[in-house]
Amino acid sequence: MSKKGKISILLSVVLVSALITAISPKNGQDPAFHHFVDTRGWLGIKNFGNVLSNLPFLAVGIWGFIVLGKRRPVDGIWAIYAVMFFGIFLTGIGSAYYHWAPSNDRLIWDRMPQTIVFMSALVATVGEWINPKAAAGVLAPLVILGIGSVLWWNHTEALGAGDLRLYWWVQFFPMVGIPLILLLFGRWDNMQGLGNLIWVVVWYGVAKGLEALDAKIYDWIIVISGHTLKHFAAAISAAYLVLLFKTRHAIEKQSPGLANSTAGSRNEHKSTSLTVPK
Predict the structure, then answer these.
(1) What is the DSSP letter of 24?
(2) How far apart are CA 34 and CA 101, in angstroms?
(3) Residue 220: which residues within 8 A CB-CB, separation 6 or more?
(4) Are 218 and 37 spatial neighbours (Cβ–Cβ below 8 Å)?
(5) Residue 218 falls inside a structural domain
(6) CATH number of the domain encompassing residue 174
(7) What values do phi and psi take at 45, rounded to 5?
(8) Has residue 116 been placed in a domain?
(9) Which stretches within the chain are classed as H helix?
(10) Residues 244, 100: Cα–Cα separation, whole Å
(11) Is the C-alpha dihedral spanning 200, 202, 205, 207 positive or negative?
């Protein structure tokens, strides 16, 4: 299949998913969402488990910037990952702030950083497997869309008619879009880091499952809740994003012949352009 045909399929899936989102019934935030089973405090920290379990996000974000400092890939890829790792770091802060005293007003600070990660992960996949320059061009619009989805939900919630549809699309479309991009544009000679990206999706799925089983897991284990474990699983998912960058952009310590081969591959990658079929 031609590249234009593949892009047509990808854009069609984006449009169909957007249409389904638009015609879906509006739904606001269920107040019960804020009622987590583990409300124990310790050392003066309210909801200790759900607050402190956000520390791994801070660690992963810092680790990401350390890795970034040692590598300078071309064509905007560095900036995409910088935004992603910053979003991961902010997720640790925003989620801890929310879980200290859960409410809709605080939930926006939990969700906005997450949308940065969702959108930048999607953009990074575009950059790594389709075209880095095109990905850099859509980074800001998609990050703004993600943040805007949370602000829109908060605005509609204040009007008494909460609308989470756009936020749900921002959160879940990457779980469809990323595998689709790999299926359409992946090549056997360009699959470095594929395993890391698969684990990103798998661990995020585990995190959502633990979130849904919050009370049941607490009843089973007692010492820790499903939501607290969800934070650890989500942080592992984020760590695989750092490993993705580290694997795809290893520090070059190679022979001149291999260096020339890598340079040729980069030039070929640069020549690829993301064009929208007429």
Answers:
(1) S
(2) 9
(3) none
(4) yes
(5) yes
(6) 1.20.1070.10
(7) -105, 120
(8) yes
(9) 3-23, 48-52, 55-69, 77-100, 104-129, 132-158, 165-185, 194-212, 214-221, 226-248, 256-271
(10) 32
(11) negative
For the entire predicted model, the pTM comes to 0.83
DSSP 3-state of 74: coil
146 class by beta-carbon count within 10 Å (0-12 exposed, 13-18 middle, 19+ buried): buried
More confident residue, 76 or 271: 76
Q: d(Cα 97, Cα 117) in Å, to the nearest integer?
A: 18
Does residue 3 lie in a domain region? Answer: no
Distance CA 241, CA 167 (A): 21
Q: Tell me how many degrees the CA angle 177-213-244 measures, rounded to the nearest 5.
A: 35
Answer for the pair 86, 115: CB distance below 8 angstroms, yes or no. no
Structure tokens at 255: 């022979």
pLDDT tens column, 7-32: 899 999 999 999 999 999 988 888 88
Q: Does residue 193 fall inside a structural domain?
A: yes
The token duo for 74 is 């071309």
Q: How far is CA 181 from the centre of its chain?
A: 15
Q: Which domain holds residue 110?
A: 49-251
Both tokens of residue 38? 């583990």
Q: Which residue has the tokens 């000679």?
A: 189
Q: ∠171-172-178 over CA atoms, to 5°?
A: 110
Calpha distance 97→106 (Å, rounded): 7
**How far is the C-alpha of 179 from the C-alpha of 15, rounded, in Å?**
17
pLDDT tens digits for range 171-215: 989 989 998 998 888 777 677 778 888 899 899 999 999 998 888
Residue 45's DSSP bridge partners are 42
> What is the tally of structural domains in the chain?
1
